Structures are given as C-alpha cells and as structure tokens.
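Teaching soon. Invent one.


***
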Amino acid sequence: MTAPSPTAGLRQIYEAYATRAFEEASQQFSEDAEIYNHATGDHFVGRDGYLHQAGAWAAAFPDLRLEILSCEGTERTAAVEYSLRGTHTGPFITSSGFLPPTQAHVELRLCDIVELDEGCITRLSTYFDSAGMLRQMGLLPHSPLHAEDRRAPLELYATEVDAAAHQRHKAIVHRFMEEVMNQRDIAATAGLCSPEMVWHGGELGKAHDLRSFQNRLRSIFHSFPDLTVASHDVIAENDRVAVRVTLRGTQLGHFRGIPPTGRQVTSSGMNTFRIVNNRIVEEWWQHDLLGLLKQLDAVSTTPASAR
C-alpha cells in the first residue's frame, strides 16, 4: 500500500482556495501562523489574517483561478509553485497602497515556502514578480497597455498608505456591502471586521463583539433572505466612512415578533463605519424602522381620534 504524500494535505488547502472555500482553508493555519507576502509587503497573523488576505485578492480579482504547478516537500517544510489568473475589476488593497480597478487580465506565477507542524501551517511566505503584475495592468511606463489615463492609479499605488486611507477605507466598506450584505456571506465578516467589533443597531439592539454581530446578521438574513443593499453617497474622513443606502427585501421569516408576511419592503438610511488598521471596528445603523414596520402592516396608520 502506497504511503500518502506528506504534501497531500497541503494541496487540499490550495484546492480549497481555488474554489473560494476560504473558511475551510483557514482551518489548516495555526492561530498564530505568520503569513508574509514579500511582493506586496503584507504581514498577517493566524486564520483571520489568512481570511483577510484571501478576501482582498478575491475582491480585486473576482474571477481569480488558481492552478497548482508543483508541490514538493516534507512533513515540516514545502515549496508550492502555482499560477493565478484573473481580471482586475475590484479594488486591490495592500499595506503599500491602494490600487483602483484597471480592468486588465493578469497572469502570475507564485511560489510559497510553507512551514508546518503536524500538518498545520505555522509560517507561509509568498513570492512573486510584483513589477510584472503592474506591467500587465498597464501601470508601468512602456508596458503594452500604458496610457495617460492609467498613470493616476500607479501614482496612487505608490502613495504612502496613510495618504490614501480614505480611499482604502471606502474600498473596505464596499467589500463589506457586496460580500457580507449583498452576498449574505456572514463568514466574510471575519476578514473585514475586528473580533471586538461593536454594532449600534438602534431599535434593533447592540452587538458587543464579532460573534454577536454575526448572530444579528444571521437573524436579519433569516427575516429577509433576499436582502440587497444599494450604496449611494459614500463619504470618508479620518477613520469614518458614511454611506447612504437603500435596503430592499421580502419578509419571509419572523421579524421583531412579526410572522412572515411575504411583503416587499424598502428602507433608506445611513450606515457609518469606523475603521482601524484596515478592519471595521464599529458600525452605526440608522434607518427608519417605523416606516419599515408600516410597510409590513405591523403598525396602524389611522390616527387614534379617528378610531
């Protein structure tokens, strides 16, 4: 009987990444795993760090495809060579700066050096040609796609992170709206929010950490399983991002004691986020709850004197 390859479990992690099963892949990292991307200068720690990095790449390249080219090593160390292919249609956020979408198709070859302890990743170092990536995006002079209208994004990419903080914070909130709210992916909050996140929901209550916030979201999505959020005005200053939004959904589950009505509702309001170290640490949810309850026919619109 042939003994299993020492890298068989490692291959499963990359295959999980290829299918966007980030949560599954993250379980193979130790709680204090050191994750380095030497091309972008990023450093992350643990499973949450892995989810943050994976989510950032998936947001920048929604059609990202991964192919393992080789995976060799022992039970303690391994080298994984793989390719990534995708179209840069979303914001790309790194510790070096912020790169707006270029709509360019990118093909990269990467190498990861992995350290393991009983099959669990304790250190991962990623290397790839970042200049080659920028050249494919048309952001380097004399590259095939280089044009006047693409020089500004390169300038922004080279800007110090703090100088582009408001743009970076907007991109984080955009990811939250799209991945968490519109895709109703509660697990995505792990890569975007702080474990100590506080949610101020007004009449809907308050959440004092990420787990309780996730439970609040789970309850809302149960009440309105087709909930969508349209973002309108987005204003960022210092560590705050304010977004004027419109919520739409159909009440197919219990909501504040109201049995399912099958009614479609629309609610406009403001969501304000506070962001620290590229994580959402606080959110204020301000919507017209009374107007929403009226749409569910849960409150009377007839004046008391006319009854």
